[in-house]
Amino acid sequence: MIDGYTLGRAEGAEKSANSWMKYARELEQELVNAKAGLEAIRALKDAALSELARLDPTHPLMVQENRQKIADKAYFAYGKPKS
Predict the structure, then answer these.
(1) Is residue 69 part of a domain?
(2) CA angle (27, 30, 32) in 5-degree steps
């Protein structure tokens, strides 16, 4: 026979586990959404670069280093990456 204390602890542990599982599913969905957004931005960037190359092949943004500087500035403005 299980006493009330043990039963209460087991129910509390189950509730805690369910809460963590819900949180993990939410984080997983946020990651999926972020990856989808990143792919959409890449597609848009590629289309814009193709059009820019057609219109002005000597534009400074046609140089990868120039684009990387812009990307780095935005990335680090968001916050330093955590290791």
Answers:
(1) yes
(2) 110
